[in-house]
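Example 4.3 (complexes with small molecules)
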Amino acid sequence: MRGPIGIFDSGYGGLTILNEIHHLLPDYDYLYLGDNARAPYGSRSFEVIYDFTLQAVRFLFERGCNLVILACNTASAKALRSIQQCDLPGIDPSRRVLGVIIPSVEAIGKLSESGHVGVVATPGTIKSHSYSIETKKLFPEITITEVACPMWVPLIENNEAHGPGADYFVEKYCREVMQRDPEIDTLLLGCTHYPILYDKIRAAMPEKVNIIPQGKLVAESLADYLQRHPEMEQKCSKGGQLKFLTTENTSKFNQLAELFIHHPVNAERIQLI
Ligand code: DGL
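Answer. The structure with D-glutamic acid bound is encoded below.
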């Protein structure tokens, strides 16, 4: 049975990925799930993030998705491998779950001239060291500096991304990145929420630093995946529809989501268990 491509994030951040995927691949149907009621995930333990992510994946499978993108670095870092290796074979080996870290790392090598790259992300992603570990495998010559920004997601989830509180915390963590390695010329936004703070991050970082959101990288990687896997491509329905699910109150979700996606949003409230 054909079904929509599932896009999962703890909250609104995955909408920055959905935007780019939908822009590049507009013909497919997409089902977005934001676990807004339990966001942020970034400071939660491995076990909790894994449980929540698995619940979301199962839900999206039940709604007909054959392919699910974890548009969340924290979930990709903490849950993707276990889901792919331990859960998927028992649930349905013909379905697929993909993450956002590998497509971003694959692009890192081509982006930096100095060979010094900063990664900003949630405490969960940083503690996993997924970016350093994966980069070392593909580009051992690159030096990665990972900085956790625990306040950025809460600011965004609480609609404070454009307020003065955001200025303070954006400057604080950007300063830390450059103090830790002044040779950095590329900063990867290793959390799908962070593009919402792009203008402030741009203003806080030195001009020489190229700031890289993940959306385009993930979209291009998905296009490539679908081309290389025609059996999965054929299972993705093509009606050009976008549908939204949230675990939070829908009017709050619709209002904020529209700011990110510039598209009318009429979400359905669901419960994950
Ligand atoms: N947007 C998510 C990420 O890319 C996580 C945000 C959170 O819930 O802490 O890591």
